[in-house]
Amino acid sequence: MSATPSTPKEDRRAEAERDDEVLFLLFSSPYPWSVEELARELDDACAPDRVARLAAAGLVHRLGEFVFPTRAARRARELYRPY
């Protein structure tokens, strides 16, 4: 049985969903998470890549190994997910 190849649009959507998992964890706690904690919680060795993408987009700050959401990310969350 062969899997159907994914399209670039599907790949971007899946990547965005994985990045959103990181943001969800960061928003769920008032304290910063370490990249190692995120990887362990998500059971994903690619967590450092996710954090790097989010940092490049200006959605998280990094302080050493610790990560926390930017004010812009928090405000966007309020605007688009008011729950």
Question: Keywords for this structure?
Answer:
globular; three-stranded antiparallel β-sheet; alpha+beta; 4 helices; Arc Repressor Mutant, subunit A; 83 residues; 58% helix
Order of secondary-structure elements: HEHHEEH
Give the integer mean of the pLDDT values: 88
- Which overall shape is indicated by the principal axes computed on the Cα atoms? globular
**Major sheet: arrangement of strands:** 1-3-2
CATH level 4 superfamily: Winged helix-like DNA-binding domain superfamily/Winged helix DNA-binding domain
Radius of gyration: 14 Å
Structural class: alpha+beta
The portion of residues assigned to helices is: 55-70%
Query: Largest sheet at a glance?
Result: 3 strands, antiparallel
* Discrete helix count: 4
CA distance, first residue to last residue: 41 Å
CATH class: Mainly Alpha
- Strand content bin: 5-15%
CATH architecture tag: Orthogonal Bundle
Q: What count of domains describes the coordinates?
A: 1
Any low-confidence stretches, pLDDT <50, length ≥5?
A: none
Quote the CATH topology.
Arc Repressor Mutant, subunit A
Write up this protein:
- It is a single chain.
- This protein is α+β, with helices and mostly antiparallel strands and 83 residues long.
- It has a single domain (10-80), classed as Winged helix-like DNA-binding domain superfamily/Winged helix DNA-binding domain (Arc Repressor Mutant, subunit A).
- The protein contains 4 helices and 3 strands, in the order αβααββα.
- The chain has helices at residues 8-27, 35-42, 47-56, 71-80; strands spanning 33-34, 60-63, 66-69.
- Strands 1-3-2 form a 3-stranded antiparallel beta sheet.
- Helix 1 crosses helix 3.
- The longest helix is centred in the first third of the chain and has 20 residues, at 8-27.
